[in-house]
Design goal:
Number of domains: 1
CATH topology: Aminopeptidase
Structural class: alpha+beta
Shape: globular
Length: about 190
């Protein structure tokens, strides 16, 4: 499914990630990391191993990955799945979100986050994410998207948790007999 969202320069199209996205996803991850908080947590390097890791991650059924494209070029991605820290099947996690730094503040991150929240709310009632502790720009973004900082840290305080309650959404489709059907198959006229 593709959703278009207006941004300053183009339209963001969202689609499920594919294995062949691993090279561009790895590049966006490294560039976004280095520009966003490399000064806090160290610079990361592009490598064949990172591409291989992203190839395995994108193929894993544990996490749903979505990429954002502008004019046919991948410019960001998000992954959601069950919480890994803490391990809790009742808790979803925004695993990773990264946007090409040349596309920051153009709506790509917001479009990806909205998609991620939609995917999370289909399976869980609440979610968690982890982000660098001394990264106010990221904290402001998450707060603007409805997340709130929790009293949790990890990795000797270098990362903090944000949490969010999710509202389950019911998807309706309209059929030719003017009935609406939810994802569970129930009908409403």
């Amino acid at each position: 499914m593709v959703i278009g969202t207006a941004i300053l320069r183009g339209v963001v199209d969202l689609r499920p990630a594919r294995d062949d996205d691993s090279e561009v996803v790895a590049a966006i991850y490294i560039d976004s990391w280095n520009q966003g908080f490399g000064h806090l947590l160290g610079i990361r390097q592009h490598s064949a191993e990172r591409i291989d890791r992203w190839s395995a991650d994108l193929a894993s059924p544990a996490t749903e990955w979505t990429v954002a494209e502008v004019e046919g070029r991948v410019v960001g991605f998000i992954g959601i799945g069950p919480s890994r820290d803490p391990v809790d099947p009742a808790l979803g996690e925004l695993d990773t979100i990264a946007v090409d730094p040349s596309r920051w503040r153009q709506g790509v991150g917001r479009a990806l986050t909205v998609r991620g929240l939609d995917q999370l709310s289909a399976k869980w009632n609440q979610a968690i994410l982890w982000t660098p502790a001394n990264h106010p720009r990221g904290h402001r973004f998450y707060e603007a998207m409805g997340w709130r900082q929790l009293e949790r840290t990890r990795y000797s305080g270098t990362e903090v948790a944000f949490g969010r309650r999710l509202q389950r959404t019911v998807r309706w489709r309209h059929d030719q007999r003017n009935q609406y059907h939810s994802a569970d198959g129930s009908a409403w006229s």
